[in-house]
Design goal:
Layout lengths: L1 H25 L6 E5 L2 H17 L1 H11 L2 E2 L2 E2 L3 E4 L8 E11 L18 H9 L2 E10 L8 H4 L6 H16 L1
Parallel strand pairs: 1-4, 1-5, 5-6
Antiparallel strand pairs: 2-3
Helix pairs in contact: 1-2, 2-3, 4-6
Length: 176
Amino acid sequence: DPALRMQALEVDEADEAVRLLARYWRKAGCPSIGVVTFNRKQADLIQARLQARAEANARFRSQYARELGRVEDGEDTGFFVKNVENVQGDERDVIVFSTTFGRDRAGGFRRNFGVLGQKGGERRLNVAISRARQQVIVVASMPVSEVSDMLLSSRPPSIPRDYLQGYLHYAEQVSR
């Protein structure tokens, strides 16, 4: 069932984002962090997974509370989880970008990326990734080569998913 597979990917990515946050927050002087997701459902899931970890782990709960209330030089730099439509104007040192979409159980990949796949999606992508002052960390399950045919055809980007593929390919290359 494709819906079940998507749910598994969403949970896997949410859990990976929470593990990543826990590693950052353990360190003294960690950077300010925000999480940006492709959709509200994923943002809500990450919030729920953070809350569950906080309920189960007192140290994490303390770190999470500290980051939520973080203020630097009188400016709110607290941790947030927002979907790509609601992140405009929020900057943090590190942005964790959770893409959510991936292959279904049968191995298929639907190229439906919510608002990032619609007209103007390239502008929303730009807003999301430009919220990071120092680093963007991409947590993704999607096969970058199948997001669009732009890379294979060597044509310039012309539709929103071309820009998404170009960015994810760039991020993959930089991380290597």
